[in-house]
Amino acid sequence: MRGMLLALWHYRHFIFGSIKNEFATRFARSRLGGAWMILHPLAQVAIYALILSAVLSAKLPGIDNQYAYAIYLMAGMLCWSLFAEVFGRCLSVFIDNGNLIKKMHFPRMALPLIVTGSALLNNLLLFTAILAVFGLLGHLPTVHILWLPLLALISLALAIGLGLSFGIVNVFMRDIGQIMPIVLQFWFWLTPVVYTTQMLPETYRDAFLLNPMTGVVMGYQNILVYDKAPDLSLLTYPILLGAGSLVLALFLYRRAGEDMADVL
């Protein structure tokens, strides 16, 4: 473990440079360039704010704002988009970079770090856009926003641990790469992003807590929507599962790391 961390530290310039190059490549030959990093999330949250609330007139109990549903939805999407992007990219990170793995000598665990860094930057821009929209809607978060880094860390632990575990298996069994995007879609709808847990039948509410993202998403919503601290009792399970999945991913990598280059 110590050797891996030292190797990643020695290749830190490669990691940061790769994140920078990824963004530069994405907006190459674009007149607006990096401005699209702001325009894309702004367009997304504008759709939620203008259409879902203004047209559908959706309301939520406990929040006195005509755009309550848009605020609620954006809070959940901020959390889910970070998890889904990191999970989805970790699932195929070794396959997508197969040629690089064969041609260059570098710690392969740098690849998930590059993916995570890029996703974090995307999410930070989305967060900035959401705060701007919240300001326009007259709903600015309070000091409880300081809990968000902890919740983001839990989301990343789950996404990296589970994504890499399935991603390593995906190198040897490519069906995993076809199945997991479908699973991710079901996972989204089993997470209270577009609905509240109060809308569910009471007999099913406890079952939804078996989904580790339920507690994390509800934490985001408590902070950004209801201006209160997250329920820490709902975060114990996601923290334990996130830590366990990271250990599992490290174990699978050590067992299969040498064979992956041959398969790729």
Topology:
Blueprint: H1 2-10, H2 12-26, H3 36-55, H4 68-91, H5 93-96, H6 98-103, H7 110-136, H8 148-172, H9 175-189, H10 202-208, H11 212-224, H12 236-263
What does the model show?
- The protein is mainly alpha-helical and 264 residues long.
- The protein has one domain.
- It is built from twelve helices and no strands.
- The chain has helices at 2-10, 12-26, 36-55, 68-91, 93-96, 98-103, 110-136, 148-172, 175-189, 202-208, 212-224, 236-263.
- Helix 2 (12-26) packs across helix 7 (110-136) and helix 8 runs antiparallel to helix 9 (175-189).
- The chain is globular.
- The mean pLDDT is 82.
**Uncertain stretches:** none
Output the number of helix runs.
12
- Structural classification: mainly alpha
Q: What is the number of domains?
A: 1
Number of strands: 0
